[in-house]
Write a structure and sequence with these properties.
By secondary structure, the chain is an alpha+beta fold. It has two domains: 247 residues, 3-Layer(bba) Sandwich (FAD/NAD(P)-binding domain), CATH 3.50.50; 140 residues, Beta Barrel (Elongation Factor Tu (Ef-tu), domain 3), CATH 2.40.30.10. The chain is 31% helix and 25% strand. The strands form five sheets. Strands 1, 2, 7, 8, 9, 10 and 20 form a seven-stranded mixed β-sheet that branches. It has a seven-stranded antiparallel β-sheet with strand order 17-16-13-14-15-12-18. Helix 3 packs across helix 13. The chain is elongated, with a radius of gyration of 25 Å. The mean pLDDT is 97. Bound molecules: dihydroflavine-adenine dinucleotide. Dihydroflavine-adenine dinucleotide binds next to helix 1, helix 2 and helix 13. Dihydroflavine-adenine dinucleotide (FDA) binds next to helix 1, helix 2 and helix 13.
Length: 399
């Protein structure tokens, strides 16, 4: 064994969790190597938050995460919380601002966050190698882990899998971490694209195309879960924050329900309009609340035979049915845009086989899983990065 290629810890993946973990472990005095198959590290950080990286959220709670065992993320999230990461960002004098719902973004560029992580790695004298294909990983009790790669062989006492999820394959996402987990006897929970737009094959496809670019503040629900935010009609279907949030909870084949006027009792509103504006047309009254183009589509769907009928002539029962449709518009996505545009991967390495305190494998001593490869997925709004930081911190203390 050449000492030159032996490390205390090797981290597979130089993304958010891998770089953060590497810097912390290096600063603890460990000899750390990061291996990444991409040509550059931190690509997803750079594209995140529209280039401004929504790096955490002021209101992080375990309820913002999906995991088969909802208790699993609690320990890591409390050991390294959003305030600790904000403190680090402030130490680097990175200008940032809050957008809605406690979401924190860089003022200038996501590059600031990547540069901060790289500076932390430098402080820890971390070695980083890119364009590295890992061919095999094996473990021997005295030597630890041995990795045969396109850049030579490397060994280490600890191995951290931080290779992320499957979303955006063009940015270097691979299923390598999942395969490695299985190699060491870990089970995987089914993986699907999360935080992803919905697609449609029925009439909604045409409506979305025609309304492309329109954003509307709605409440969107599926099964027992609802979110209130903007929906965005696009050429491909429905997107926008409310859709991305709900996609984490949507099951293929299920309906979604859209309330177009979540602050109003729509039936009462329409009946009131009927008495106050007897000669008006329903579409003109609704256009005070919703974009005209959307109202025109809704008219075709829900009251075509009364399109040119004065309010006074529309039976109450019809207005009540229209109101029901506007407050609970039932839509059936044909699917999602998939990993091509998804922000995250749901499912992954089963947390039953990991320590919630250290992220260590219960099957293989010295093996750790952090970040998105683990079955922990956050809501939209900086929660996924906070999981990356928190799980990285947890592991870094125990390498
Ligand atoms: P991450 O994906 O960051 O890193 C994995 C690394 O492993 C990559 O560098 C990859 O090249 C490398 N790798 C993969 N396979 C490998 C292999 N076989 N060998 C070696 N290396 C390998 N979250 C959030 O909180 N706020 C936000 O604003 C956004 N915005 C956003 C936008 C877009 C477009 C996407 C796609 C995602 C987001 N996210 C987000 C989600 C966030 O980017 C994500 O949750 C974290 O980057 C996950 O961090 P990881 O370290 O787990 O993986």
């Amino acid at each position: 064994m050449s000492l030159v290629n032996h490390y205390d810890a090797i981290i597979i993946g130089g993304g958010a969790s891998g770089l953060f973990c590497a810097g912390l472990a290096g600063q603890r005095g460990l000899r750390v190597l990061v291996l990444d198959s991409s040509n550059k590290v931190g690509k997803k950080i750079l594209m995140s938050g529209g280039g401004r990286c929504n790096f955490t959220n002021l209101y992080v709670t375990p309820d913002n995460y999906l995991c088969q065992n909802p208790h699993f993320p609690k320990s890591a999230l409390s050991s390294y919380n959003q305030w600790q990461f904000i403190e680090l960002v402030e130490r680097y004098q990175i200008p940032y601002h809050e957008r809605k719902h406690g979401e924190l973004f860089c003022d200038d560029s996501a590059k600031d966050i990547l540069n901060m992580l790289l500076a932390e790695c430098e402080l820890g004298q971390v070695a980083i190698k890119t364009r590295c294909t890992i061919n095999t990983v094996s473990h021997q009790s005295e030597q630890g882990f041995n990795l045969v790669t396109s850049l030579g062989s490397f060994s280490a006492k600890s191995l951290v899998v931080a290779s992320g999820g499957l979303s955006i394959p063009t940015m270097g996402a691979t299923g390598f971490g999942y395969e490695l987990a299985q190699q060491f006897g870990h089970s995987l929970l089914p993986r699907t694209a999360g935080l992803v737009p919905f697609t449609f094959s029925d009439h909604i496809k045409g409506i979305s195309e025609r309304l492309s670019g329109l954003a509307v503040d709605v409440e969107l629900s599926t099964a027992n879960t609802s979110f209130r935010e903007n929906v965005l009609f696009t050429h491909r279907g429905l997107s926008g924050p409310v859709v991305l949030q709900l996609s984490n909870y949507w099951q293929p084949g299920a309906l979604i329900t859209m309330n177009l006027l979540p602050d109003s009792d729509i039936a009462a509103l329409l009946l009131n309009y009927k008495s106050q504006h007897a000669k008006s047309l329903l579409r003109n009254l609704l256009s005070q609340h919703l974009a005209k183009a959307l109202v025109a589509e809704l008219q075709t769907l829900f009251w075509p035979q009364y399109a040119d009928t004065a309010m006074a002539e529309i039976p109450d029962a019809v207005l009540k049915t229209v109101a029901e449709n506007l407050s609970a518009w039932q839509l059936k996505p044909s699917g999602t845009e998939g990993y091509r545009t998804a922000e995250v991967t749901l499912g992954g390495v089963n947390t039953d086989e990991l320590s919630s305190k250290t992220m260590a494998s219960k099957n293989q001593p010295g093996l750790f899983f952090i970040g998105e490869v683990v079955d922990v997925t956050g809501h939209l709004g900086g929660f996924n990065f906070q999981w990356a930081w928190a799980s990285a911190y947890a592991a870094a203390q125990y390498l």
